[in-house]
Design goal:
Helix content: 10-25%
Oligomer: single chain
Radius of gyration: 21 Å
CATH class of the largest domain: Mainly Beta
CATH topology of the largest domain: Immunoglobulin-like
Distance between the termini: 33 Å
Number of domains: 2
Largest sheet: 6 strands, mixed
Low-confidence stretches: 20-31
Strand content: 35-45%
Shape: elongated
CATH superfamily of the largest domain: SoxY domain
Structural class: alpha+beta
Order of helices and strands: HHEEEEEEEEE
Mean pLDDT: 82
CATH architecture of the largest domain: Sandwich
Length: 155
Amino acid sequence: MSAMGVSRSRRLMIVAGFGVGACLIVRPALATSGELAAAVNAYAGGAPIKAGRVKLDIAPLVDNGNTVPLSVSVDSAMTAADHVVAIAVFNERNPQREVIKCTLGPRAGRASISTRIRLATSQKLVAVARMNDGTYWSDTVDVIVSIAACLENPI
């Protein structure tokens, strides 16, 4: 290969490296706590959210973010007079803020859900329960992820 070809290849590699670096810097998947709070506030429609009654159960240290068990339970009698209407879970740093939204009623028997999720990186998760009286309750957990998931770049 001639000296001209090596010089051109080097320039292309440098430009490509800057392009990849710029994509990583402006990556929208890495959100802020403000975006998490905005998503939770939008779900509650601006209503006050109190801590308590909700238990978000997830391991505080996760080896692999590709499949993470998660469960949410709410302290409720699940009667017509006192029941959970909906449960939602939000995350801080995945490409989409909403992890899950589900609807419940008094015939559900228990105010409890379980699933598996993917976590992009170490982040905060918030579970919010809406009660039939219009109140909102929540629980927050910080999770440390050793091997990240969900960071593929859709092109």
